[in-house]
């Protein structure tokens, strides 16, 4: 069930690296089951796929070589957003293990992830991995075209809306477009990037940057979280490909088509988090005696975890009055655990936390509580609600949903949000305390300011943050997207597709 009904006219085909659930074998009876992934994207988009009779194309999380041959139906008890998604609406992409590894780890994670987060020194550029990326994008495209044929057979007059997601699929659009044009299948093609789109100075480091930009331009409509990413992309198209562009109206002309570039800030199912917070178990009984600083992240080098712990250490050195009553709770979800860099980061963090705890712990108090694992949504909501300060300080982040989840869950005593200006969320959550994570002393000062902020000020800031996030929730994002695609359909039907100079 969508949180608010969203009426889309076209059947939607979502194409993402992953299906909206993972398929695994029930250890007890060996039966195939769906394991839910509760991301914002799945929550928002899966109901629209269900409602419009659309399809979801993605990798099922296992290789068919592993013996998984079919997509199971959802469990009758299933209340997740994908419950209504029939197995016939799911198109699994089967990829050979080695090709998948080269595409996913070799290209997406080792190259695009650091590069797009403006950390080029970490990026590895390898021609063979790029070849695997191209192959996999072609495979995704072929299955998407097959999905279009299926939908067209059922209702020939519908124009399917194909929505490609993220940096894994930047080259699929042109393959889909070419095949559909050849068969006379009318479609709409859109793309959304969940991570930052960096400046031309960074993009030009990628040896095949022209192919990449042309790949994205294969869509009719391209979405980024914030305006800066839109302008970066437009700038790259102009400088690298010589496209005619209109920065004001966010248009790029390419191959006799006009592509629209849209600023679509993603968000969360706000009301669902409010409900969760209202019934979540109590974590902090008395805030006057116990203050919780909270961090919730995937364990990733872009999230700035090491910088954050160092700033907390500095806080305890400079302001000893916080010892014994302030605890830093860091929840870190294991991520890309088979990659060396992530293993090294985990080790560095383990050591740092150990050394801070060793330095300051007393018989009854340890400064840092560290959970390395996934926590339930109820538990997460309880942490968000009871935290005095939520520390969201990535070195770079497309948007960051944790900042928004924290704000939604602040249903009792108002806390303070500390936010990095290098997260997309920093662009609009103006009432947060902004902190540059690279400057340890200043970071410690701002931690202290957050912990000692008067209630009036906390209330004022949180009220405004909550008002905005409630309004600009994930349904707003989805509606804005659907509107941007419909507008595009209208303008492309008009006589002139060429930009005014
Ligand atoms: P991520 O990099 O994964 O997403 P983020 O936006 O913060 O980052 O989302 C993380 C999600 O994981 C949140 O919904 C959070 O609740 C959940 N989570 C984190 N730790 C958890 C834990 N220990 N247990 C359970 N759940 C946990 C990418 C981009 C972001 C962008 C999103 C959406 O990198 O910038 O905001 O996509 O577009």
TrEMBL record:
Molecular functions per Gene Ontology: alpha,alpha-trehalose-phosphate synthase (UDP-forming) activity; trehalose-phosphatase activity
Record's GO cellular component terms: cytosol
GO biological process, one term: trehalose biosynthetic process
UniProt similarity note: In the N-terminal section; belongs to the glycosyltransferase 20 family.
Protein name, per record: Bifunctional trehalose-6-phosphate synthase/phosphatase
Organism: Armadillidium nasatum
Gene: tpsp_1
Boundaries of the shown chain within the full protein: 1 to 501 of 867
């Amino acid at each position: 069930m969508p949180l608010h009904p969203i009426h889309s006219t076209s059947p939607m085909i979502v194409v993402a690296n992953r299906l909206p659930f993972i398929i695994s074998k029930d250890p007890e009876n060996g039966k195939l089951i769906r394991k839910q992934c509760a991301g914002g994207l799945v929550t928002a988009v899966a109901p629209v796929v269900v409602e419009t009779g659309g399809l979801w194309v993605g990798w099922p999380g296992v290789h068919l070589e592993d013996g998984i041959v079919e997509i199971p139906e959802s469990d009758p008890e299933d209340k997740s957003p994908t419950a209504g998604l029939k197995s016939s609406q799911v198109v699994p992409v089967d990829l050979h293990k080695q090709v998948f590894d080269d595409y996913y780890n070799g290209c997406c994670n080792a190259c695009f992830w650091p590069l797009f987060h403006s950390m080029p020194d970490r990026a590895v550029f390898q021609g063979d991995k790029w070849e695997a990326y191209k192959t996999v994008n072609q495979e995704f495209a072929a299955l998407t075209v097959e999905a279009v044929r299926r939908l067209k057979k059922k209702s020939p007059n519908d124009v399917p809306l194909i929505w490609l997601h993220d940096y894994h699929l930047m080259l699929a659009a042109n393959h889909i477009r070419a095949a559909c044009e050849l068969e006379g299948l009318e479609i709409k093609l859109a793309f959304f990037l969940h991570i930052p789109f960096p400046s031309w100075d960074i993009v030009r480091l990628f040896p095949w940057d022209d192919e990449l930009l042309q790949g994205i331009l294969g869509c009719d409509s391209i979405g980024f979280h914030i305006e800066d990413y839109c302008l970066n992309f437009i700038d790259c198209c102009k400088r690298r490909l010589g496209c005619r562009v209109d920065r004001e109206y966010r248009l790029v002309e390419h191959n006799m088509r006009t592509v629209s570039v849209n600023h679509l800030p993603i968000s969360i199912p706000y009301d669902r988090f409010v409900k969760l917070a209202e019934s979540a178990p109590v974590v902090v009984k008395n805030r006057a005696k116990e203050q919780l600083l909270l961090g919730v992240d995937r364990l990733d080098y872009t999230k700035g975890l090491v910088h954050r712990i160092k700033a907390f250490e500095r806080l305890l050195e400079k302001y000893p009055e916080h010892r014994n009553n302030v605890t830093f709770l860091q929840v870190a979800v294991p991520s890309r655990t088979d990659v060396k860099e992530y293993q090294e980061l985990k080790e560095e963090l383990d050591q740092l936390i150990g050394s801070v705890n060793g330095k300051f712990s007393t018989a009854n108090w340890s400064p840092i509580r560290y959970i390395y694992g996934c926590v339930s949504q109820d538990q997460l909501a309880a942490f968000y609600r009871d935290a005095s300060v939520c520390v969201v300080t990535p070195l770079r982040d497309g948007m960051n949903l944790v900042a928004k989840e924290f704000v939604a869950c602040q249903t009792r005593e108002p806390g303070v949000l500390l936010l990095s200006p290098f997260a997309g969320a920093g662009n609009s959550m103006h009432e947060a305390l902004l902190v540059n994570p690279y400057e340890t002393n200043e970071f410690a000062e701002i931690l202290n300011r957050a912990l000692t902020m008067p209630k009036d000020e906390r209330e004022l800031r949180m009220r405004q943050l909550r008002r905005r996030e409630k309004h600009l929730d994930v349904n707003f994002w989805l509606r804005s997207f659907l509107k941007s695609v419909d507008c595009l359909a209208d303008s492309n039907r008009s006589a002139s597709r060429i930009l005014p100079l």
